Amino acid sequence: MESSSESENEEHFVGFDIADIPVRPDAPESDIDVSDVSSVHTSDLSDWDDRNSDSESDFEEQAPVPTDRFGWASVTTPIAITPFGPRVIGPKTDDLGNNPNQLDFFFLLFKPAMIDSIVTQTNKYAREKIVNKPNGIDPHWREDTTAEEVKAFFGVLILMGIHNLPRDDMYWSADDRLGVPGVNKVMSLKRYQKLKEFIHLADNDHLPDPADVNRDRLFKVRDLLDMANQSFLEHYTPDCDISIDEAMVAFKGRSTLRMYMPIKPIKWGMKVWCAAESNTGYLLQFEVYTGRRADGTQHGLGHDVVMRLSSPFFGLHHHLYFDNFFSSVTLMTDLLAEGTYACATVRSNRVGLPVGMKQHRKLTKGQSLVFQKDNTLASVWHDKRDVNFLSTNCSNEDNSVLRWDRTQQARVAVPCPSVVKLYDQHMGGVDNSDQMRGYYNTVQKSHKYWRYLMSFVFDACINNAYILYDQTVLDKPKTRYALLDFRLDLADHLIGGFSSRKKLAPKRKAQIVNEANIGVHTLIKFDGRKRACITCKNLRRQTPTGRAVESSYGCGICQLNFCRDTCFPQHLGAVPVDEIV
User: Fold this and answer.
1) In terms of domain of life, where is this protein from (predicted)?
2) Fewest Cβ atoms nearer than 10 Å: which of 6, 218, 229, 419?
């Protein structure tokens, strides 16, 4: 009822009378007769209107922008970005002399001191294992390994990664379709298998207590991991853009480090957090995930990983790119406080995001919404679905990306905020590094998890060394010098003419059999291993398994091996070979 009466009063209201206008008690009486309207000039009124409109305009400019409960506004202003640089970008190879080769670049990252440590620990581990064998002897490990042999072993692994046969023994096969002479000439299969069995990186005398929840789960490879992380930064200065992502090291054995990732191409394996230069894929830092920390985390796993991996670049105004596993509003703020900008996709359920990122009208392809809080932008862009972004390294500017259009059967430009373009261009650094590592990797099957991490570091060192070589050496062996060429040349330098094979005895010259010396041709047993029967070899006889027919017996005069009961009597009869049945 009250509202209806008020509406009726409003309908019959005709204005205030002069007597109805109250006068402030503290206001001085005016000498102006307000009834004398002729004393008021219209020009004065217009001037007052202009001044009043100007003051209203100033009020609108100074009025605070409406924000939601988290402080986000739908009106954006330019983002303040400190330029990156100036500094020298790329390889730092002052330690190299004139005309460095592929091995010199590799040893910048994989230190020769690590080779010496591997030699020491491998020999120690071999002695610990052999002492438990019968008589404390291993016929295929009669002498300790050396630095030259370990380097040759790694060279063999590189060649195996290039040829990639199903079984190790195939590289030593006598079948021309399988055997790899470059591997066969370096060492025997048995010696290779023993090196593979005994190779070791850490001293087992200092193994951590398995009952200690805070033990180092990566003790077996800790020195190798630390060496790589240090040398990767020591010899390369990254460009402005750095991507952070996860990589998987395939492994199906038993280990607490093994994880199952059903949506990943590599579903079983160990997770490695990586930071890589966006342009080249140079691996800058990495960290093997060992599970939840015993002391917990304040801001979440993703936040801590990004802060640790990017800490060497704080204050240099780098731009980081990472996906929605890591991103949060808190992370963006913390990075900005360290002088580091970032761009990332973000999950819509993260705390502190604009309310409008969840509660908004349905967008069509190419449409977007942008919100701002201080120096951070939050964007929603519709591609095939809504994609959310957080960024501190760009302002809200219009851009476009190419997308496939089914109706036009062509790639067409789709409008987008500038953050989408930046993310597409610079997020692929870790993927590039993974792609290079997967081409000719040196992984060998094993039930020990640390062998796979050793191969991960070894391949990462090769790939990074190739990037250093490619950017440093101008006079390359080939016009288009690819990673495959670098690996082949590096394998040659690592092997360096080394061979652990015993030198073969010179071939024994056959003596002509004639009637004058038939009587002195006697059957004897040769010392040493069996050799192929010369008669069977000429007749191309083979065993049921396809191997050459061998015998320990032969002629004492001719110094040739013969089958004792069949071929040697024929030899005594001096029967021509082509007549032997």
Assistant:
1) Eukaryota
2) 6
